[in-house]
Amino acid sequence: MNSTPTSLVQTVCPYCGCGCAMNLEIQENKIIKISGIKRHPVSDGFLCIKGRRANEFVDHPDRLKRPMMRIGKKMKEVSWETAIAHTAKELKRIKEVYGPNSIGFLTSSKCTNEENYLLMKFASAVIGTNNLDSCARLCHSTTAAALAQNLGSGVMTNSIAEAGESDCILIFGSNTMSSHPLVGLKMTQAKKKRGTKIIVVDPRRTEIAKKADIHLQLRPGTDAPLVNAMMRIILEEGLEDMEFIKTRTKGFEYLTKIIRRFTPEYAAKITGLEKRDIIEAGRMYGKAERGGHLLCNGNDPAPHGSGEHCQSIQPGHAHWELR
């Protein structure tokens, strides 16, 4: 096959939430090469291996291209018309026999907002049920609630590109190099080019943890005591900005009462960490002029999942929430 493409299609990588842009080089209706798009605000022409090799799953022989339907004991290919007609018939039968609330729908974060909206309308208007759920409720509801309470909106405050401009990045519950490779690349590049400090809080010894200045390998579920101890260190050593706190925050007096008992010694006993590492992490993050914290799904199912999503008491600190 001639390697010269006959057409070029611009699209977005489907792997993670980074939104890296890619060019698909097409020949005879097949992808022959994938490359990044330069000057893109997220990926800047870079792609991780999952993006560069995305064409492999598109044309893989195991990929389903037609509906499969169980006929007898075997799954067999059928036409789209047959599959849709059978599904509609069965949904109608179940609704008539058992009622609309015997049917439930699950949507996906991989779907677009429009697709999820259509399924919601199908469930409520056609079937007559509100039994609709998605991974967003289980994975991200605690995040959205906490961010809305602390920041006014359940979204990250800064662009991914700005991660490379930070002096210190505190990473909670994220296997960044695997789950969001381009974000991890920006952070490791910042470490090499401008000396950005990286603190990783994760029971796992992940790839980003190996590159970190401090890896706080705490006991699972003890994130909240660690955060409280770090805040106590920042306040005790005068690393906070009182003007920012007075004009931009609420409930500061209540916070100081809560964290009073969370000494580094107390937090060390709960988390299994060394006292000196907790103190060093608190100082490192507190002294950063342009710090930021990155959260991922590792926090959400924790016992205090919502409470851990706290905004820094430093002015100008960024927040990234990867999904």
Provide the CATH architecture of the largest domain: 3-Layer(aba) Sandwich
Task: Name the poorly predicted regions.
Answer: 307-316
Q: What percent strand? A: 15-25%
Give the strand tally: 12
Main beta sheet: strand number and arrangement?
A: 5 strands, parallel
Oligomer: single chain
How many structural domains in the coordinates?
3
Instruction: Indicate the percent of residues in helices.
Output: 40-55%
Structural class: alpha/beta
Number of helices: 13
Intertermini distance: 39 Å
Order of helices and strands: EEEHHEEHEHEHEHHEHEHHHHHEE
Describe the model.
- This protein is of the alpha/beta class and 323 residues long.
- The chain has 3 domains: 52 residues, ADC-like domains (N-terminal domain of TfIIb); 33 residues, no CATH class; 182 residues, Dimethylsulfoxide Reductase, domain 2.
- Helices cover 41% and strands 17% of the residues.
- The protein is built from 13 helices and 12 strands.
- It has a 5-stranded parallel β-sheet. Strands 1-2-3 form a 3-stranded antiparallel β-sheet, with no helix packed on it.
- A hairpin with a 2-residue loop joins strand 2 and strand 3.
- Helix 9 packs across helix 13 and helix 12 crosses helix 13.
- The two termini are 39 Å apart.
